[in-house]
Amino acid sequence: MKPAASPPTDPARRAGSGGALADNEKWLGRVMMAPAILYIAALVGLPLLLALYYSVSNVTVGSAGWPSYVGLSNFRHAFGNPTFIRAVWNTIFFAVVSMAIVMVLGTILALSLLKDFRGKWFVRLLILLPWVAPISLGTIGWLWMFDSVYSVINWTAQYFGIFGKRTWPVWLGQPTLAMASVITVQVWRLLPLATVILLGGLSSIPKDIQEAALVDGASVLRRYVQITEPLMRPIALVALLFGLIFSFTDMIVIYVLTRGGPFDTTQVLATLAFFTGIDGGDLGGGAAIALFLLPVLAACVILILRFARKTEVT
């Protein structure tokens, strides 16, 4: 006698088994994404909700119990503060100028590293060092380089005759030089990230397109303008987006070098929020200042991503 055929497996019973979860791409993807979503919610969502709550209250560092609701008074006080207005413009100038320099230098470095040459690994190592090293330690090193007495930049320039005996710029004590100094350090910090992203975009461009243009007699500039730049534009916009987010929200460089001085000429929103909320003890006011970055960054992200989608080459 032939053995009886086993009945077909019930789909509902299969869905409830552990093996069926691995075969279901829809639910497997949700399960795999759940830890990342929970992590982001705990790391970003809860502090954001707490900042929203603090921004409409009179909470301070030493307050006990539940703070009182004050509405939008913290925002009105911030908008009426000349230091806040100056910090807004300083933040925009600091982020835009530093990222413009980063994108230009990053493109040049990425194009250079795309070619093979002797010592290429060592050059890549030097470029990545600022990103690998702790930013606080690196900034402290720059603080010594910009020191008003022991500046190696001033001593070297004076030795080679670039600076006269009576010419001794105080890099962090003069408004224009202080802003130029913090932008220089920010460029030094973000250049490795932009270079790596742009290098990845350049490496993804098919070589046969470049070879065909070379056979047709196209010059280097024409190949870059008509082939390289359009194909890597979405990747470049991603690098620009990450750099702008870092520049708008970062406070380490300015906090270590100038602490917003001299005379608030390098004060940005991140440092102003820290000095108001932590050093000044006004957590509500600091939260209101920090939340001003949220709509600004959201608008930047939306605009850059929409432009990147439109510039994608299919």
Structure explained in plain terms:
- By secondary structure, the chain is an all-alpha fold.
- Helix content is 72%, strand content 0%.
- It starts with 10 loop residues before the first helix and ends with a helix.
Write the layout of secondary structure elements.
Blueprint: H1 11-16, H2 18-23, H3 25-55, H4 73-79, H5 82-113, H6 120-132, H7 135-145, H8 152-159, H9 175-203, H10 207-215, H11 220-249, H12 252-257, H13 269-279, H14 283-291, H15 293-310
Helix pairs in contact: 3-14, 4-14, 5-9, 5-11, 6-9, 9-11, 10-11, 11-15, 13-14
In short:
This protein is mainly alpha-helical and 314 residues long.
Q: What's the CATH first level?
A: Mainly Alpha
- Average pLDDT taken over every residue: 83
Helix and strand composition category: mainly alpha
Shape: globular
Strand content: under 5%
Provide the CATH topology: MetI-like fold
**Helical stretch count?**
15
CATH architecture: Orthogonal Bundle
Main β-sheet: number of strands, strand sense, barrel status?
none
CATH superfamily: MetI-like
- As a whole number of angstroms, the C-alpha radius of gyration is 27 Å
Span of the ends, CA to CA? 62 Å
Count all strands and give the number.
Answer: 0
Helix content: over 70%
Unreliable spans: none
Give the topology string: H per helix, E per strand. Answer: HHHHHHHHHHHHHHH
Give the count of structural domains. 1
